[in-house]
Amino acid sequence: MDGQPHPDFSLLARYVPSLPMSDAWLKVYRFLIPSPQVPLESTSSAVSIELVKDPGLTGNPSILSCVARPKKRDNEPIPTRRPAIMWIHGGGMVLENHNMDLPKMKVWVEELGVVSILIGYRLAPEHKALAAVDDTFAGRQWIVHHAVEELGLDIDRLVVAGNSAGGSVAATTMQRIHDTPLLVQPILQLLVYPMLDNRTVLQSDDSVKARIWSPKANRYGWTSYLGCKPGSTNDDDDDIPPYSVAARRTDVTGLPPLWIGVGTLDMF
Length: 268
What we know:
It contains 5 helices and 7 strands. The chain has 268 residues and is of the alpha/beta class. The chain has a single domain, classed as Alpha/Beta hydrolase fold, catalytic domain (Rossmann fold, 3-Layer(aba) Sandwich), CATH 3.40.50. Helix 3 packs across helix 4 (165-179). The protein starts with 22 loop residues before the first helix and ends in a 7-residue tail after the last strand.
């Protein structure tokens, strides 16, 4: 596989390189990424942006997240409760924050009339599994507690969604919600090129000329998150914590409908 881009790609996209991934490069990327403390400016007069902190699970730190929702216009009647998207950002388990996906969420909010809650989570390698799932599960609890009065949500129309590593965390968080008694279940899982299975990087051949996220970067992300290299003696179903690798779950009975979108060449 030579990783040649689709003919519909622009000329510039044909020359996007693979990102080198290492502890040193990780520091560089994090330095360049905008801080989650400062939300990107909204260019839409129809969308409001608000930073929020949910308290996290007992013993864990509070988590900074972001709410994007339609602005109420003057003389507009109180709208019916809106459907909501709980969005979880990507970044290979080690990078990014809610600001990276905020422009896309603004478009969804404006065009679909939904409320989007962009949930933050602690990153690997400093915080290994299950820190990310703990944080997003706590974020879901925060959404439920603030849904009606503060956010104007219809909690019965909640979608759990994410891309790349966020797709992984969304899927495992959904599994945990499903297994927790008495919780209202989301109606849909929406996963965009999700990072669902660490066993996709057992092959050490790096001949695939992938753009941006390479097999080597994929191994780095999973190793950082799980604390063991894919294919090592402690990388089996008995040693991998539940809710850390979505594809290792064997029984998906009762989980909500699932939509997955992938490209032609997908590392996951």
